[in-house]
Write a structure and sequence with these properties.
This protein has 1 helix and no strands. The chain has about 60 residues and is mostly helical. It is elongated, with a radius of gyration of 24 Å.
Length: about 60
């Protein structure tokens, strides 16, 4: 009986650690999204950073 209780406690600890890791990953992704920034007003985000003219050839 004691062994079963110990295994159950180990499973619960593992679940808690997994939840903590997932929460940390979510926070990291949120901060990365915030760091990217928002486009300037009047700028189309789909074409932002595109340089017009001939493009370099792929080798």
């Amino acid at each position: 009986m004691g062994n079963e209780t110990f295994k159950k406690r180990q499973k619960e600890v593992a679940r808690q650690e997994k939840r903590k890791k997932k929460a940390a990953q979510r926070m990291e992704r949120r901060s990365e999204r915030a760091d990217v920034g928002k486009p300037l007003p009047g700028e189309d985000p789909d074409i932002a950073g595109i340089i017009p003219g001939p493009q370099p050839k792929d080798e």
